[in-house]
């Protein structure tokens, strides 16, 4: 009997009330053809109904791969648990899944990606759920939102605070999935899967094991099928005894807006000269100052936004291999990519499955993390996961909470004000026109990072902006370094409504940060 079926035949095997777990990261590794077939079957037959959908990382994007939006239909989707959600420009329509969440049509949760992978491992081994300190004192904690994204989510909690061994922990009971939907490049006739054109392994193996251990259904979408016995055993990432059905989509995208780039999957190595440098401007200045925290030989984690520019700073300075980068999708080393290819890397040294990468992150094996912020408050709390007015401008927390939970050093980067006009002059930075509002707020809308918890653990935390570098002290945010040309009293203290103070011994940063060419720095 062949395992190869049409998308419609695969969708027909999913029963009402099933719990789905989907392996994806935006369009990277997204089994979109299978998700599309599930949505089409529901529109035609009214089944399957009442699904719970679990997504450790987002499924689909807002630029042509619908992903989870295929499932975002009343009656089809009953609950969603995701580490992140599709996000994009405010000029684009709100994704259907975000409408369901914000209109409180289904219970919805934003659970850190690493915890979701942990939940699969614990459910697979039939243990008692995840016991973790990741997320304490953040929105993940039941003393705040408990991961709930709306009222229906809050009414059905999925996490509890517990005491164990004299310490406070967060406990996530098991959610056992019935169906796993993953993606690879090639399947042989027995269902063995290889990932040679993929930019990451993600968590497909762990998700498949979890489902198989509970007698469920595993569906693999691939670009092609080969004869049984023709794949090298060392290349097989998911063995065929875990796979029930194979769906072929020869047109699956490698990642957002990218049909196929062999450098993303490590099949060629690009010359360093082929990578573009960071565009000159304010955000490059911020990224340059952030990069100055690096030292040769370090391993650093990297997030989306301004932080993603930091590797390009090292490239411009002539030191592209001085630091080993590690990103949550699994790439280690090389050059992390930006824009639509974020989450991928070219010239990587290795690809690690995401669940193992998150073990490394949660245990803080790396030297420092570069992350971005939407807003920061007087307690040093950071929000990256919620924007009430335009919710889909952020993907949610993703791996942010896992990464920051125990990190020894964190460098947050962002704008001091939203919409300010900043001029880069030969003498320094000048605020030509104030912004619409400060990002240094009294209290953040969502606590994705807890300043109080950071102080308890002795974490070193910096906030880098176009006006200053702030540090988290006992009294709140203190500007310890001032960008050249900035008036501390007017552009920092007054502009933040007094929420940021200036240290008496604050120093002025060098003008070289504003240089058109390399700034002459080495890690």
Produce a short descriptive summary:
By secondary structure, the chain is of the alpha/beta class.
What does this structure look like?
With 523 residues, the protein is of the alpha/beta class. The strands form 9 sheets. It has an 8-stranded parallel β-sheet, with helices on both faces. An 8-stranded mixed β-sheet has the order 17-16-22-25-31-32-33-34. A 4-stranded mixed β-sheet has the order 13-10-11-14. It is globular, with a radius of gyration of 23 Å. β23 (375-377) and β24 form a beta hairpin. The model has no long low-confidence stretch (mean pLDDT 96). CoA transferase having broad substrate specificity for short-chain acyl-CoA thioesters with the activity decreasing when the length of the carboxylic acid chain exceeds four carbons. It catalyses: an acyl-CoA + acetate = a carboxylate + acetyl-CoA. GO terms for molecular function: transferase activity. Pfam families: CoA_trans (PF01144). Keywords: Transferase.
Output the strand order for the largest sheet: 1-15-12-9-2-3-4-5
| Head-to-tail CA distance between termini | 58 Å
Structural class: alpha/beta
Mean pLDDT: 96
Detail the poorly predicted runs.
none
Helix content: 10-25%
Total of helices: 12
Radius of gyration equals 23 Å
Number of strands: 34
Strand content: 25-35%
Q: How is the biggest beta sheet arranged?
A: 8 strands, parallel
- Tell the overall outline: globular
Enzyme class: transferase
Pfam families: CoA_trans
GO molecular function: transferase activity
Protein name: Acetate CoA-transferase YdiF
């Amino acid at each position: 009997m062949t395992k190869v079926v049409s998308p419609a035949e695969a969708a027909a095997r999913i029963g009402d009330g099933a719990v789905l777990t989907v392996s994806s990261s935006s369009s990277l590794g997204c089994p979109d053809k299978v998700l599309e077939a599930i949505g089409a079957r529901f529109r035609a037959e009214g089944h399957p109904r009442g699904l719970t959908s679990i997504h450790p990382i987002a499924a689909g994007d807002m630029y042509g791969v619908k992903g989870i939006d295929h499932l975002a239909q009343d009656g089809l989707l009953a609950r969603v648990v995701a580490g992140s959600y599709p996000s994009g420009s405010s000029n684009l329509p709100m994704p259907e899944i975000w409408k369901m969440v914000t209109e409180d049509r289904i219970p919805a949760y934003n659970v850190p990606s690493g915890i979701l992978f942990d939940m699969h491992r614990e459910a697979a081994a039939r243990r008692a759920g995840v016991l973790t300190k990741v997320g304490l004192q953040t929105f993940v904690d039941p003393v705040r939102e408990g991961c709930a994204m709306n009222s229906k989510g809050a009414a059905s909690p999925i996490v509890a605070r517990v005491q164990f061994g004299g310490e406070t922990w967060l406990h996530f009971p098991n959610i056992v999935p019935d169906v796993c939907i993953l993606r690879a490049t090639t399947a042989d006739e027995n269902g063995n899967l290889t990932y040679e054109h993929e930019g990451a392994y993600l968590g497909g193996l762990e998700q498949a094991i979890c489902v198989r251990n509970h007698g469920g259904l595993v569906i693999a979408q691939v670009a092609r099928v080969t004869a049984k016995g023709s794949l090298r055993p060392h290349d097989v990432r998911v063995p065929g005894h875990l796979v029930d059905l194979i769906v072929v989509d020869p047109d699956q995208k490698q990642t957002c807006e990218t049909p196929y780039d062999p450098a993303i999957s490590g099949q060629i190595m690009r010359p360093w000269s082929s990578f573009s440098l960071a565009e000159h401007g304010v955000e490059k200045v911020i990224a340059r100052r952030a990069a100055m925290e690096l030292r040769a030989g370090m391993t650093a984690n990297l997030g989306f936004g301004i932080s993603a520019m930091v590797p390009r700073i090292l490239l411009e300075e002539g030191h592209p291999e001085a630091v080993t980068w590690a990103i949550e999708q699994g790439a280690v080393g090389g050059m992390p990519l930006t824009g639509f290819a974020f989450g991928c890397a070219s010239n990587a040294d290795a690809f690690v499955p995401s669940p193992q990468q998150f073990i490394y992150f949660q245990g803080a094996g790396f030297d420092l993390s570069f992350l971005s912020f939407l807003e920061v408050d007087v307690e040093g709390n950071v929000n990256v996961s919620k924007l009430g007015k335009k919710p889909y401008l952020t993907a949610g927390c993703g791996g942010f909470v896992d990464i920051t939970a125990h990190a020894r050093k964190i460098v947050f980067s962002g704008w001091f004000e939203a919409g300010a006009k900043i001029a880069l002059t030969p003498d320094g930075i000048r605020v030509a026109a104030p912004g619409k509002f400060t990002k240094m707020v009294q209290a953040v809308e969502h606590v994705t990072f807890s300043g109080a918890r950071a102080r308890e653990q002795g974490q070193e935390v910096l906030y880098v902006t176009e006006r200053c570098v702030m540090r988290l002290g006992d009294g709140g945010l203190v500007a310890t370094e001032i960008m050249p040309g900035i008036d501390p009293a007017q552009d920092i203290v007054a502009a933040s409504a007094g929420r940021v103070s200036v240290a008496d011994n604050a120093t002025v940063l060098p003008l070289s940060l504003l240089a058109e060419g390399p700034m002459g720095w080495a890690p």
